[in-house]
Amino acid sequence: MEFIENLTFKQAFDKKLISLGLSEYPCGKGNWRISSKLPYAEQRYVTTLKDYGVQKDKLEILEEYISSPKSIWYKNDNWSDELGDLRRLTVSFPSNAHYDFVCKFLKSLRIVNSGVSVVDKSLLNFENLEELSLSGNFLKGVDGNLLPRRLKILELYANDISDLSEICNSPPALHHLGLGLNSITCIGDYITGTHWENLLSLDLSGNYLENLHLLISKLKTLPKLRNLVLFDNPLSLLPYYRGFIIDSLPDLTAFDNRIITIDDKHNCKRFSTHCSPDISAAKLQIKLICVKGLPSPISGKEGDKVPDYPVIERKYYIEFPFVSPHEKKVISVPEPISSDKKSSKTGKTKSPTPRADESESDVKEEKPIEKNVETLSSTPEMIWIRTPSLEYSAEGLFFEFHVEYKVAALPMLKTLFKSGISFKIIEEKQSFYPPGMAPVTDPDKPASASSKSAKSKVRVLKCHHFIKLMLQRSTSGASDKRSTSNNVHSSKNQKPIVPVQSQQKANLKKGAKIDSIADLVLYSTEHITLGAGVLPLANYLEGESFTRTVLHCGGGPMRDEDYDFEELSPSRQNARKEKKDRKGAKPNPKAKGKKPTSVEEDDTAALPIVLQLETVLEQWNSTIECVKQVESF
Q: What is the pTM of this model?
């Protein structure tokens, strides 16, 4: 449906009125009506069979046409509660089917999603209007002088209102004011008792209000306020949000569409005295527990020959966007993989050597997350958070990544929650070669994505062939008296092999061995996204504070057992594995006669990639909890 912009209120109302058909059959005046000079009974009721099928319709028939849902003249319009009575009235008294009478007859009016951008003086013609809804339009403001004086309910949801100064120009004595889903950042001195003495209900949800203390100081001046709605604002993410408002506005009976009970008021007594305006940040804990269903990195069939080089190392990590700046407090993280552990058997450590076409400044080592509090100071933006890397395990990757983030940029945090946090499971694939044996590529002609896999196979074969050739020369004792040229040629039947420098040739001596991956040279690093899933957190803006779920990130379809939330640390996982090993391969009597599942029958079926995680938004639900948490906030 296309919305027509820049319509005035009168233009939008005229379109609604024309669609009602008050001047057309069976309403209004026309040659289809019986003469009004006849007695009322003869005008209205059908008494004999000869009255059916005549050219002149009686009032009883006309009223049935407009009230029966099976009639083609029946209209189920809901833009006013008085439309049914209005159509019946124009059937009985067709002289009332004119514009002025309609405006005075209506008491409720809903001009919703009609492209209205300007409210004009024609609204004052609705003298008896008590309820008005102009939601879903393009209004930037409404002048209070143009509102009918008897108006009690005004709804302006989902517009583009950011300034409230216009609506405070001599407004009527409203009982309810709905300003949700707009662009309001501050109410100023416009929502106060000076302008709204009789206001009973106020809805400011879905805006961008941040300063809770300033907002409450203005709302305290509303003497009759009983219902308040503020959810889906940045300030609703504050830990003391609900308790502070219940204690600050004791006359409230409902808050955020929930009844305030006596227990709520008792638990939040003197809550506001412990909340300082300096506490203006939200705390969110993210706990990434386990990833299951990753495809095995071992490819190929048994018996296939695997080339000696490159040596491929695979590590796995999770990446997700988050708001910066923030304060980070690490509760628990896995130990990152380092080259020290891999070379502990040989006692040698060596940092990876950059490629010939790569400078040392371009090589970035993974920095493990330190277990302390980190503060980032910069303008608000979205950054990518990366967990430490883990090696592949068939039973799953247990990250135990548990970090608490303290964020002061509440509007950006609201945007993140509305869109959801995207978690990516990434495989980091690194290729290593012996020193001097790495294939050399032409930097002016980078390989395309389509031929990348084919060229990598050729490089592996060439490097493997070169190592064999150099070992043969070293055992024969023949000295190499060739000039240090860039090209090394083989016999006629052999293809040219990869050029290397003369200094690098001396690294391969007789009996030389590669003790660990630290003695190899890092040639390339490739990051492959194995799966991704989005965790919606919009419910945190509506009062929820805890999410524990299994996120489907790709692979095959989800099974019933994939929804089981199992939290096992690596130590508990190893203990369970050792317990199974001690039992041995004992036959299980319960397994006799058990039919294999569909997954067991089809070994090639892809398993679903799932991520088990928890998120907790800190909230203080009582004064006692507030006192404890304020000291450590």
A: 0.75
